[in-house]
């Protein structure tokens, strides 16, 4: 997979290192000399593209025409937004991910502007504080459908409402679907007459709102 990263600061370089370890083909665009010096210590010269990530000529030089994913993570929202729009509508990039630095600008980062996934760090921190979901018991394995649905893994806790109950007797949200149940190293196909037990490992497809409901049943 070919990934073009706009912004080589702390976030951009961290993302680049992770993707490189997963054998992705990466390019990093950066214009600040002090950041470029650090990048040159971590990556080979063919990975680093010097220039403005919102400049179409620089994007062309970095190979955006053949990129699978564009990740715009500069510290300037306007650059991330312009780059996203160019990537989506000029080059037809399938997946465009953009960083939101200032929460007040989040409303601009939409599908219409070319952003498939927006990462708002302030919102993520707030969710950690106010979200009812027990993050220790729900592990998000994969985001689907532009982030609306997730494949999640969770456990049935002892004394939970679902402990000892059959699936058909639980008030399961419409947007939640059991995929598999693992019990004592055996995989069970989730059917209505399957009884859930404490310690069961659940693999499921769910939207964010349904996760809150399910947490109350299983947690």
UniProtKB/TrEMBL annotation:
Pfam families: TrkA_C, TrkA_N. Residues 139-219 form the RCK C-terminal domain. PANTHER family: POTASSIUM CHANNEL PROTEIN 2-RELATED-RELATED (PTHR43833), TRK SYSTEM POTASSIUM UPTAKE PROTEIN TRKA (PTHR43833:SF5). Residues 1-119 form the RCK N-terminal domain. This is Trk system potassium uptake protein TrkA. It comes from the Bacteria. InterPro entries: K_uptake_TrkA, NAD(P)-bd_dom_sf, RCK_C, RCK_C_sf, RCK_N, Trk_Ktr_HKT_K-transport. Keywords: Ion transport, NAD, Potassium, Potassium transport, Transport. It comes from Breznakia pachnodae.
